[in-house]
């Protein structure tokens, strides 16, 4: 059974998605959009009321294996929308939601069985001296630029070419090839409590950065009001560091207006090893931020 009182293994998360698709088959479907290097499914859950006029939002988690709060938060969103869809506000019901809670299932399982602080996927590099590509350096927008390493043993290894990894390739192909009106792309990471918009590849901002800043700040306000946590809003490269090949930049480059990386809690006391007692508070306040995003998606 799924709870938000502990972190779950991949099998449980996938079982939960399949259960929801079975239970709420009128609005929910699940499909595998590809397989990880080690052959695990990349499962996307879709929630929709089927209105053709709907805009679409894509949400992912678990790009980085050790950031366990991310899949936990994304599954919390899924559960909330699935269990209460009829009672949800119009802003939620009139969006086609696509969720990929674990982009990097091999890495995620590896953090459960072998190395709790593993970050990358698990595909061995050519030459095999080290395993793993940083999926968030492997996307095809300004790939190979600043903040990405060509060294396979680095934790920020960019891969041998853009989209060299089955997981990033499947995600990219899905967004490109799905007939949905994607208006927002949200990717959940940890930690630090940031709401980040493009660009990440260098310290420059897109033409609509003022809108993105406004949306981000409204999300941060809602989070603070619900849970008290303070989120810092800004461009990735401005408030963090330049890092090219991120999924957020790629989504923005595809024309998806609201592209955000959300770095969940905490701010560093526990970091990646966030105690399970934090899951519900973090996820709950994040949902308040997501509701604000949904409002903007419907409005503009
Ligand atoms: O470095 C990253 O990939 C992200 N931070 S994390 O600590 N979760 O690893 C930030 C990514 C921000 N976006 C881009 N740089 N494109
Ligand atoms: Zn991350």
From TrEMBL:
Top-rank taxon, per record: Eukaryota
Gene Ontology BP terms: proteolysis
Cofactor annotation: Zn(2+)
UniProt keywords, alphabetically: Carboxypeptidase, Disulfide bond, Hydrolase, Metal-binding, Metalloprotease, Protease, Signal, Zinc
Keyword Ribonucleoprotein among UniProt keywords: no
One Gene Ontology term of the molecular function aspect: metallocarboxypeptidase activity
One GO cellular component, as annotated: extracellular space
Family: Belongs to the peptidase M14 family.
Name under which the protein is recorded: Peptidase M14 domain-containing protein
Species per Swiss-Prot/TrEMBL record: Pieris macdunnoughi
Part of the intact protein present: 235 to 534 of 534
